[in-house]
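Notes from hallway chat w/ T.B., transcribed later so I don't forget. T.B. wanted the structure written out for a chain they're using in a teaching module, and asked if we could keep both sequence and structure tokens in one place. Agreed to drop them here.
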Amino acid sequence: MAKDIVMTPMMKQFMSLKQKHPDAIMLFRCGDFYETYSEDAVIASQILGITLTKRANGQGKSIEMAGFPHHALDTYLPKLIRAGRRVAICDQLEDPKLAKKLVKRGITELVTPGVAISDNVLSYKENNFLAAVHFGKGACGVAFLDISTGEFLTAEGTFDYVDKLLSNFGPKEVLFQRGKRDAFETNFGNKYYTYELDDWVFTENSAREKLLKHFETKNLKGFGVEHLKNGIIASGAVLQYLDLTQHYEIGHITSLSRIEEDKFVRMDKFTIRSLELLSSMTEDGISLLDVLDKTISPMGGRLLRRWLVFPLKDEKPINERLDVVEYFFREPQFRAFIQDKLHEIGDLERIISKAAVGRISPREVVQLKIALSAIEPIKNACLNANNESLQHIGENLNPCVSIRDKIAKEIVDDAPVMLNKGEVIKPGVCAELDELRTISRSGKDYLLQVQQRESEETGIPSLKVAYNNVFGYYIEVRNAHKEKVPADWIRKQTLVNAERYITQELKDYEEKILGAEEKIASLEYKIYNDLVLSLGEFIPAVQIDANQIARLDCLLAFANDAEENHYIRPVVDTTDVLDIKQGRHPVIEKQMPVGEKYIANDVYLDTETQQIMIITGPNMAGKSALLRQTALITLMAQIGCFVPAESAYIGLVDKIFTRVGASDNISMGESTFMVEMSEAASILNNVSPKSLVLFDELGRGTSTYDGISIAWAIIEHIHENPKARAKTLFATHYHELNEMEKSFQRIKNYNVAVKEVDNKVIFLRKLQRGGSEHSFGIHVAKMAGMPKSIVERADEILHQLEDTTTREGLGGTSCPKVETKREEGVQLSFFQLDDPVLCQIRDEILNLDVNNLTPLEALNKLNEIKKIVSGK
């Protein structure tokens, strides 16, 4: 904007505040509206669908403007945040009635995608993480904070490990050092909403000082993160960002936890995506989370997401979870009781966090009371359960009786959402408040008496006493009766059909009543705020309650899953045996047509006799489903869930790797084969003898013999290298790999059975010993609706190719001896030659439309063929 333009004082105020956060849309409070100006207005009007208009800006100039009522903030703010915008909220810092000049304004909050507390912005069963990444010299540090729950986590490691964590936690916003964008996008991609901070934020001294000041400790040893220099720097950056966004009330962030990599099964982002743990790869599909999530509380839903991407690899905690699930399963009355009480809890974690930041509504305070009331019977039931883990949960639950009773005593049961609606504090809490309420109510009754008395005295039947903000209380008389108005009434307003008057008596009572209501509001505010402040000391206890309830909720959900889906308890130990009898795919079986049963299969793997299963069989026969279900059953067992099988013996795995289908990188310009090889290399560089590896159709992206050679070498490496002796399922359409069983003792051939009846294929989807002879690809094409002539011709070519391969072995030529079919039945003999140039000439001629070719086009085509022959 040009400097010589004389702006209005309010627009000068706006511009000075806007300079503090130029990259944020500023919502500028103006009376009963939030307004946006200039470019902000243009953007806001597009995102929010509100009218773009103009406001005067001095010397006949105007500026773009768009606004909405202040009470609609919770409707419009989430839309801006979800559109990836930062929003600065600028409020009036004084009462406009008391302001002598321009109303004082200031930015009260900066809301960003990663720093949001409003329920309308947050997802019910999903964390809203803010992350920070620090690029250290020897390692990369990362921190995650959900300000809505107070969870604060940190870790450090390789770029690959941090990439995995970012993928698992799915932060809504990621912070990193200014100037490091190339490094960030190279290692972690460009799918995250990011924000750059100054260099000084990412220094150890600054970060450590910020953390110690917040936690009021002398060091960070108590959190187990003292040695994580890069993690500390990332964590400090998160707290600095809260300062920048003016989030100062963060007493609910009570600890910093280390993400302990050695406790959890390692799964990269390709595995999480291909196993469809959190979301389906198809639009109408469902994920494993969709199948298992029968949690009741939002905390339980959030924890279950975490459990799915961080399976345990320690036998003891897994079996403790399984014990609780079994107890729920065996004790239906106990399960029904806990389930009933969990419905009363609500989002305990986020409610107490709102208390910490001073944004808890009266209705949420009442919900907190209800939740704490439900926790007491849950605590007692768990303490009396015949299960050590449940007893431990019971011991950790704290009903916080004193604050619960204080809420019950002071806040009305049907409290409004907004404090300014009034009637929040119960009678009997404050004598002065009770007295003022009596005055207020009797005053209003008195006004009704005035209305009745004046009506009778004046003989005006339609006379009424009313109120508005301009005149206060007034008497309205319709024009038909205005001659009857007494002389001492003072006329204040003339309407089309009526006149409005005031009297001295009304003014006296107005002052008394309004004064009482103002004092009532002030007293209610004070009593309520004192209560909210007293909630502060219970924050750590309630956070522990929320954590224990979430755990209980997840395990209850697993018991309900087991009952509904006929799951059984797996045996989990530290052996190297994976023995699944009649295993089923937990997601696919839920999508089966009514009346159709999922075909179950056995899978056995160990490190001594059957380490690698090579599975052949036609496309559509169910090879991919078998691979995925093996991984999902293993994963479900290691999160403490019952599994879809008749029996399952799960030797703990430390890593699960999948190379299934093409990944997103293909859309980024990498070839299918390059993606396949990159992902396969990542597996081979990280695999261990305790890992579970799934390869599905590896090598599809290159020529047949290249693919066979690479697949052979990879299987051989996994079999022969002592450091890579992982349990492996290898689904392939390369039947040549069946030869490996003869040379390698721990490789066994299997195939997914099919049955040919009258030259038709029936997929039995049953795994059986031995390799399969061919892939039935042509039958699949026929089933897919391929034209009959093409299917028949493909069958002819297949037989010719098979004859060629039988005669020549694996050393096939670049132009196989396929007889070209012509309608006249005449075969041009030179097309059978093995010269690739002649193959190309053949193709050029076959593609000509001779009947519609002009003489000039024919000469040009002949010239092109001449160039092919001469090699020019």
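Follow-up for T.B.: Residues 662-669, 810-817, 822-833 have pLDDT under 50 and may be disordered. Might be a good example for the class.
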